[in-house]
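Appendix B, record 7
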Amino acid sequence: SPPPGSRAERTVRVVSTDRHLQNELGRDAFVHLQQTNIGHIDGHFVDENHVPVCACFPTTISFDHDPSTGQPILSVSTRRDETSFTTYDGHHRRGIEPWRVDEWGEMPDAVEQIYQAIDRAEGLRGRIQSQYITVDLPHVAKPDVRDLAAHRADEWLLRAHYGQATDQFYLLVVTSKLLDRSVENYRDLQVDHYWEEQRKAREESGEDAQEDIPTPIFSFPALSARITNSVQEEVKEDFLDNTAVGAHDRLRDRGGVASHHCYRSQDVNFGHEKLSADNSAAHVYHEFERGKYGSAGKGRTRLRHIREDHAEWRMNPPRAYSVVNMANLTEDAQRDVVGFLLTEFKRFQCPRVPETLRETLVQDMQGLSVGSSVILHSLSEEQYDPQKIGTGGIALSGSLTATVRNTLESGAQRTAERLGVAQVGNRHECLESGALGCAAAHLVVLQDIAGDLLSDFEEEGILRPGQKYTARPIRTAWNVGRMESTPKYFVNAKIAVASAISPIEGPGFYENAFGDQVPKDSPENIEECYACKLFTEDQRRGAVTKTEVEVFLPLERDGGFVEVVDVCEEAYKLEREEYLKLLRRNGVAIPGDDETDEDRRYPSALFALMARDTSANFGLRANSPGAPKWRIYEKGSRKYDYWRLYGFITMALQSNDMKLRLIVLVAPWCRWMMCKKGTRMGMGQMELAFRSACASTFPGLLLEVLCTERTTVNRSLDRPVSEIPVVLYSVFSLHMSQFMHLIVRNINVLVKSCLTDKNLLCKECTNLLRTKHVRVISRAPRTALLRSDRQVANLPDGDDSDEEAEEDDDDEDDSVCSDDGGLEWDDEPGTTSSAEAEKKKRRREKADRKFIHRVVCHLMRAGPGDDKAFEDVALPAAYHYITHNRSGVRMSSDAINKRFKYLRGANIIRGSVLSALSEKREADLPNKGNRTGNYHSPTAETQKTSDDGLRHYAKTGGDFRLQVAGVAAPGACIKADGTPWDPHSIRDGAKATLTYSTKRSPLITGITYWDSKTFVPGITWGTVKQKTVTGDHWLRGYRLVTQTHNKSKGIQGSVKLNSKGTKAEVANDLYFVICKLVKRPEKEDEGKKGGKK
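Structure tokens (predicted):
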């Protein structure tokens, strides 16, 4: 019932059948709409204290009512798969049809009230929908105008229609308040949690917080966690159990995952250097000393950092083996896993890149951290759309690789968790972090500082309430150079930030101190684009003069506006010592002159301003003691110097005319997105980036009040995130770089897209895009691609752990592809230089490493103690990999022997596992029929069946079908990649599709059909091909004519062969080949037998 003494107009009952919300709402909750002065909505009031606050965000809203009492019932649910409903009668079209005065006469007052009530409900519904785009709201039920006209004299019926419209409005009022309060509560929880984690981190480090605003601690423990609700936990568990483990298992089944949680792990030397992640490839790895899984864009760099950490902690050196070598996965395996993940990612992605702070919070509280869901959205929405920010992100070189690697790492961690294996450190950090809480907490502080500053100015009479000032250009420092390869519409970081916070729309929103000058005209490389040290002394003095003439003099002389000025250290540092000497001589207190860190020491521009003589601009003689002086503004206990904390200083020049003369000196905004070569992209850089983001957020808050119609600091959750750099910093820069391990230069393209409200993921804006093979995570080296982009020097990254600099994967695994074994090169003495010999040695070592890692991965496909899986799956897969090349063709006996010799001498596989491999090899040797393409030992019956089939088609000349490659044992067929193939499961007439691309043709498709009556079992196409060209088999007298992409005129190709026609490069999706046997001409046959070419 309503509170005593209140005038409740209506009571709304709130219910839920959703287990997440039932825990919060209980059986039900009641909201009383009453006449108070709290929560005003369109003439109606609701006491917010009676509106439920939900920790889990309701995504589905439905309208119901009690049939006996008519009480409106609000049904809420967190389930996205549910559809909203309403039990109110009426149509759901927008609005009611117009009243026909000529037919029905003047509209009665009662009907007009119904129209007004419905318009009011529709308006509120539209506002809620615009604020909460993911919420499924029911439509407002409306009466038919003809029914109203027919009963316009029926007061009872009209009153019922009015009551229904009003009740729906009340339901929307409660909906609005419930959603608002839930989101605001979530923000407050994250803010409180952030400060608590900061307190713990400070306590642990022994620091004593002396400042009013504690300097944030940027460390993994202090920023890795957030407060979560039960829906977020459910989504996270879903991702781990189905997506991460699903991808891990798919790759394991294709021989791409090594794990010490396997069959007879004691027989594998996981500490061997050949299995180490200590190389230039990207890896998911396991480190034994701490029992920790991790991932790295470059294993060698990550291991170096771990060694440094272990030395600092006085631990043993790390021992890390590669769980997944991202540069050693077959393309088929990559496409399979990537295809699976892209489908899965759609379940966890946000519907779009959030546009407001409210939308950001809502997305964050519904599942994974918002930064993670943004990346999944960018990857899943593969088609670039210029109108939708983030779409087409799969083409950003390295982003897919890093995300797949993160997911596989979580899959490995989750698998270990299921086995009860103890692990240290945070796990699954790619899914969530406390980054958004950091932004929300400091945004409130920045808003308070801006509010206090404006209040102090008003109190002193410098600022009059409601007075507006002309917006001035943002004063940036200098332009970077542009190479010929620079994309036409490439956007510099600081220009993107300036465009977002400046009240000036269109050209003229910024001006450089150095004008149009760049460090070097026509730069030849990235370093020269940013080589500000090349500016001459005259250029630097010119920049100082330009700033004085365009900024300081007009502001001092005329007053009445505010300037935002980059400190431009490159220009002002020339005279830094002179400024300091003058200030000391005049007895002026100098702030923070003892700082040695270049990023944090007080800027030279500050001292230049403090030392300025403003006498002439106020009609006084030079160096007049009565001339106003530029000082850091302070009032009472508040001093607006936040240089070291937030990267800005508020300078005021106060004079008797009481005009506003305000300069906000800001740290360079490009520091936010900096990834200069040699800069480690760790938490240290993130702290400086945070400072830069705050230095742009604060002046934006200030300018919005001084130069627009706003009268107070904008604290609305509906403020666009493009105008709140610190929020973009947290969602993108901090979370994505430190917790998702994405390349910073890629992150910056997304940040700039948000700042400029344009999707910059196109070749006209960036050189970081792949043009093909976007679903392949490791195909060709990307070094040249990355270096061609002018963002590289400004953006990442000396920390190679974020530098997706994988090995050159065009240089394939020779040990796998070579028919000669590829593990031993017999170079002729004196034929190569020492440099060439060293290069060959490195290639040989890489081939060895890749080969042995893949063998171990195949052996890992059986779990601990699972003898059957080892015998039936792992051992045959490993043996097949050893004895066949990647095209599925069995290699020569000499090549196989070389591989086994290497395996036995490598001391990596030992004990009974090595014995099992050796026994399988020994059993294989005596059977001559086994040298033709399959490692299984065909029975005499199988050989006769296949031979009879081939003789039949040799005689008739008809088409027949064969398995492409692999093992053709009847009832146990295996493809070349080790996966099973069952010809009996294919229905007759089933369509087979062959798809591939070439340099000339982006997409070629061949269509064929299965016919079991023409299938020859027990033998593969590769084996038949070999018999037709070598040995003394009867097939030597025939040519095997294969229906390929070349022979079929592009419409009926069953397989794509290599240029020599000796190997199947691409098979159709049903894995069969159509071919025929054609008798060789007698002369050709004799020539081949005689060895003639």
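Remarks on this record: Residues 67 and 87 are 10 Å apart (CA to CA). Residues 155-205 form the longest helix (51 residues).
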